[in-house]
Amino acid sequence: MEGNYKRETDRERPLLDLNVRPDPETVSEISEIMAERYSFLSLTSIGESVMGKRIHMLSLGNGNAGKSVLYVGAHHGAEWITTLVLLRLVNEMCEYIKASKQPFGINLQMLLATRCIHIVPQLNPDGCDIQINGVRDEHILYERLQRMSGGDYSRWQANARGVDLNHNYNGGFLEYKRLEGENGIFPGPTRYSGEYPLSEPETAALAGFIRYENRLQGIITLHSAGEEIYYSSGGIVPDRSRSIGEKMAQLTGYRLSAPEGLSAYGGLTDWYIREFSRPSFTIECGTGENPIPETAYFPIYARLREMLMTFPMLL
Ligand SMILES: [Zn+2]
């Protein structure tokens, strides 16, 4: 499907102009432009959303490498700024590789000969679509979405069924269910965890990939906002997570924190740490209210890029 990504001349720039609101069609277009342009970049799909939209994955590096890492953006609809950060990362790394340059002294060719970086820029395409484009009455879930949102989609975070994907993983799910009851949380724009862990196609697709990719050594999940890095779950700290987190904090100037309250349950980081005992980090990017405007993506990216390029070597 045709998205709204810019004119022909914009598509030809080495670094794409990403001052756009990345609805799913736009993300598809940008991903396809990059996959066509860089022979060493592969574009696949880990699955589909509730509304049948593709969940793209861009992979860089040796497919047979001994180690891989995974970066995930936009679990939450109103946090699509994280999609732009990851698309820019892919674009820039590819340009450095093409020009045989070494950003921050990192030899990307060497790095990617032994490692693979998988990037899912937008896990929740439906939520981003709802937040960016709103919902028209031909939408198959129109009435339900109107009921859940009261017609206001400006802060929509959940998927198209009103499930908050970052509470739908099997990491402290039952504890969260109890808190959910106490806090009167129902299907809607934010915070509802779903009927059971991985009940949603988006989380099931990602968890399936993570289980299948047995070379995976660590995960970074981007959210917004707060300039914080979370490195533990429910008091569990995988080996070396603290020291890796300290290095990440030093490279970004973000604060290293342990999650508290409702945010400590059911997230991707919570599940991965509890099930695999490997490093996983939730990074709250940028400052301000969601959605952070697209024009702010670059300063956020500029703070994170050295860390994002260095992370595969920290594991
Ligand atoms: Zn979030």
Task: Provide keyphrases for this structure.
16% strand; Aminopeptidase; 8-stranded mixed β-sheet; single chain; 38% helix; globular; 315 residues; binds zinc ion; alpha/beta; 11 helices
Structure report:
The chain is of the alpha/beta class and 315 residues long. The protein has a single domain, classed as Zn peptidases (Aminopeptidase, 3-Layer(aba) Sandwich). 38% of the residues lie in helices and 16% in strands. The chain contains eleven helices and eight strands. The chain has helices spanning 8-11, 24-37, 81-98, 108-114, 125-133, 142-149, 173-182, 201-212, 241-252, 268-276, 297-314, and strands at 41-48, 54-61, 67-72, 115-120, 216-224, 228-230, 255-257, 280-285. The chain has an eight-stranded mixed β-sheet with strand order 1-2-4-3-5-8-6-7, with helices on both faces. Helix 9 links the parallel strand 6 and strand 7. Helix 9 (241-252) packs antiparallel against helix 11. It binds zinc ion. Zinc ion (ZN) binds at residues 75-76, 79, 166, 223.
